[in-house]
Each structure stands twice: as C-alpha cells, then as structure tokens.
C-alpha cells in the first residue's frame, strides 16, 4: 500500500518557460496580486473568487496551508512562476487525490495579464507527466464548466479524452440561482502521453 508522505514528489518542476514550485511563507502578496488582476475572468467559474477579502494576508495563510498539505500529500499545489524573472503568474495543482487508486484532478488559473501564450498548457502538461509518470496515477482528470472554453481547450490540446458532461453538476459561480454543466476530461495511465 502506498504511504503518500513517503513519496518523493518534487517541490519544484522546471519547464521551458516556467518554474512550478510549492508555495512557501512569503508568497502571499504575489499570489494575491495575480488573483486580484484576474478576478473579472475568474468570477464566472470559481466560487472562491467571490469571497472577500482576497488580500495578501489570506494568500499568505493559503501559501502556508498549501505547503503543509503538500508535505502530507493531501493536495499538491504549485505556484506558476516565470522561469527567468521568478514572477508569480498563477497557480495549478493536483487536487482531490485518492491515493488508494491513485487518481486526482488538475486545476489551474493564470494571471489574466499573461494568458494567450500557452503557459497554462505548459504547466498542466508538466503536472500530467508527474501524475502519470513518477506518481504512477492510474487516472488524472480535468473538470471545467461547460461554458469555459479556455479551460476545456487546455484539456483538449493535451490529449485528454472528454468522458462526459455532468449535467446540473454545479451552480454558476457568478449567479448561484442558475445550474451549470461540468465537462469531465481524463487521461489514464495506459493512454500514450507525450509532452
């Protein structure tokens, strides 16, 4: 049986243009700024984007909790940072991990000032390779609102199979009186995955 805490999970992943790294104390200000710059784009999809305050203190707490969860392998959150400048561009992670299978799902957001350059695709490719490679996940998923074309495009570009539409699976984040559908994409370990 897998003992998650004993797994060697890299706290830093380097790609062509990015460094994905586990949040650490002191990251709250930069993480908050990336979120603040992106709120209009996040609010249609993310319930947490409607919470207040979304300030540096909240994200400082989030960074410290993310580090603790990472060490205990409950949730693997990474900040997406520019490989050259070190600037925080967003975050991504492997969430809702079920180690008995194992499986999980990938979530992501990018500072709206940096979209359109393939950075999220690059980050998600790295997490997919981590999950299906060294972590030996049998399954990795991406779920997104059926209306979120940018998010679903990332899954499609990386060869995730659309397994279905979960009808009336959630409420609209920006209009809780309305129900929305969720697209469920997945890759399984036997799928061929190439970066």
UniProtKB/TrEMBL annotation:
Domain of life according to the entry: Bacteria
Entry's transmembrane regions: none
Name under which the protein is recorded: Ribosomal-protein-serine acetyltransferase
Pfam families per UniProt: Acetyltransf_3
Signal peptide per UniProt: none
InterPro entries: Acyl_CoA_acyltransferase, GNAT_dom, Ribosomal_N-acetyltransferase
Domain N-acetyltransferase, first and last residues per copy: 18-182
């Amino acid at each position: 049986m897998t003992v998650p805490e004993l797994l060697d999970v890299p706290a830093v992943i380097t790609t062509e243009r990015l460094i994905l790294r586990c949040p650490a104390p002191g990251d709250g200000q930069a993480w908050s700024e990336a979120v603040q710059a992106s709120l209009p784009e996040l609010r249609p999809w993310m319930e947490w984007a409607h919470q207040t305050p979304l300030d540096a203190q909240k994200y400082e707490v989030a960074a410290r909790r993310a580090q603790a969860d990472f060490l205990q392998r409950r949730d693997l959150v990474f900040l997406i940072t520019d490989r050259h400048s070190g600037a925080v561009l967003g975050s991504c992670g492997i969430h809702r991990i079920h180690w008995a299978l194992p499986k999980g799902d990938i979530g992501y957001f990018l500072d709206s000032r940096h979209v359109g350059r393939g950075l999220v695709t690059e980050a998600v490719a790295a997490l997919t390779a981590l999950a299906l490679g060294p972590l030996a996940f049998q399954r990795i998923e991406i779920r997104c609102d059926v209306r979120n074309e940018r998010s679903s495009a990332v899954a499609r570009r990386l060869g995730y199979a659309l397994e279905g539409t979960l009808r009336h699976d959630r409420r609209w984040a920006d209009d809780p009186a309305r129900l929305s559908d969720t697209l469920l994409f997945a890759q399984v370990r036997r799928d061929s995955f190439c970066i």
